[in-house]
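FORM 12-B: Structure-to-Sequence Request
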């Protein structure tokens, strides 16, 4: 009996192993390529690519000839882990099924990260560590503070402003105005000095007379006031601690520095009288909450320094002495020193990545 069962089992296995002529596996018969993947939008901050594709197909993503990621589609969905890509890069995505059939490629262009929805505080409001009144207060946001929306938990919004991230009750927030930013005009050119394409140039070569004593330029002051107010709404405290400086005051400062450090060294960070932008009434030195960082290169890495570098042009200011441009400007890197030129020109200078001298084609 046992021998019969063993023989029957052997015969069955042999029959199953025999493949009649003309018979093929399902995969071998499959010559139809999978559908082109549907790919969701990809921003420059994205670290995954998501979309829809044939289940169990392998999904590949390329930029040029470089593969940036792959994944297997499950239940018609896929998610590919990638490194952040540059704005404008074309990502090619395609699917390959079990039979090695390849789909048509879907090309998606990397886009700029959409601006977060912004809200304004309707009064002085507590920002908390969690979505309830029993959670710790992280900060008190003054009325008018602008916050960027992150997510929602019941009646609480998780938001970010400046260096703070936390929860605010939605009842104390309203949608921020999306009106066009105010434009800040160029300063008047009906004043003493050397002008290049309508821009007053004050540096080691071009100076101002000792009699030139205009005080703070009213247009520049308006831009500075608006910038300080805007920064405050975002939780950033800016202090314009040094503005207009007369010829005589600059003469005293330069003499003191020369006496202490030597004239050659002093000229790296201090202007000779008549050659300081502060005498024009258009230069502002800004500081933040921590006064130990004032007039130091490290100010550029503070929250206030970073905010200025990103936003000052909107209010008509340019970083006058950028890092690594000492040979062009004649002065060391000063992340606190900003010069008012008007918002239109400031935006162009910032976009160019050049110093004012380079932008104006002045040697």
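FORM 12-B RESPONSE
SEQUENCE OUT:
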């Amino acid at each position: 009996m046992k021998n019969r069962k063993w023989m029957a089992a052997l015969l069955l296995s042999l029959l199953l192993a025999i493949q009649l002529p003309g018979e093929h596996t399902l995969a071998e018969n499959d010559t139809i390529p999978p559908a082109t993947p549907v790919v969701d939008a990809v921003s420059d901050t994205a670290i995954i690519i998501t979309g829809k594709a044939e289940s169990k197909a392998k999904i590949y993503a390329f930029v040029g000839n470089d593969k940036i990621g792959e994944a297997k589609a499950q239940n018609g969905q896929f998610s590919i882990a990638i490194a952040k890509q540059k704005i404008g890069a074309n990502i090619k995505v395609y699917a390959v099924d079990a039979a090695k059939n390849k789909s048509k490629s879907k090309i998606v262009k990397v886009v700029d990260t959409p601006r977060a929805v912004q809200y304004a505080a309707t009064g002085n409001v507590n920002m908390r560590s969690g979505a309830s009144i029993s959670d710790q207060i992280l900060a008190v946001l003054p009325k008018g503070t602008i916050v960027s929306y992150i997510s929602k938990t019941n009646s609480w919004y998780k938001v970010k402003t400046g260096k703070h991230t936390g929860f605010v009750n939605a009842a104390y927030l309203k949608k921020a105005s999306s009106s066009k930013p105010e434009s800040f005009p160029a300063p008047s050119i009906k004043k003493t000095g050397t002008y290049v394409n309508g821009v007053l140039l004050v540096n080691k070569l071009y100076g101002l007379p000792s009699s030139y004593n205009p005080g703070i330029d009213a247009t520049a002051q308006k831009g500075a006031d608006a910038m300080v107010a805007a920064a405050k709404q975002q939780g950033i405290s800016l202090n314009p601690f040094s503005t207009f400086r007369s010829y005589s005051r600059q003469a005293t400062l330069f003499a003191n520095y020369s006496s202490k450090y030597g004239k050659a060294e002093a000229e790296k960070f201090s202007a000779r009288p008549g050659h300081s932008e502060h005498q024009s009434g258009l230069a502002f030195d800004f500081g933040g909450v921590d006064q130990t960082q004032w007039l130091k290169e490290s100010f550029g890495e503070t929250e206030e320094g970073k905010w200025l570098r990103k936003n000052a042009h909107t209010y008509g200011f340019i970083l006058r002495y950028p890092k690594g441009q000492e040979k062009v400007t004649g002065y060391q890197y000063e992340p606190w020193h900003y010069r008012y030129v008007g918002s239109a020109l400031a935006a162009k200078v910032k976009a160019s990545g050049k110093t004012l001298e380079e932008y104006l084609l002045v040697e």
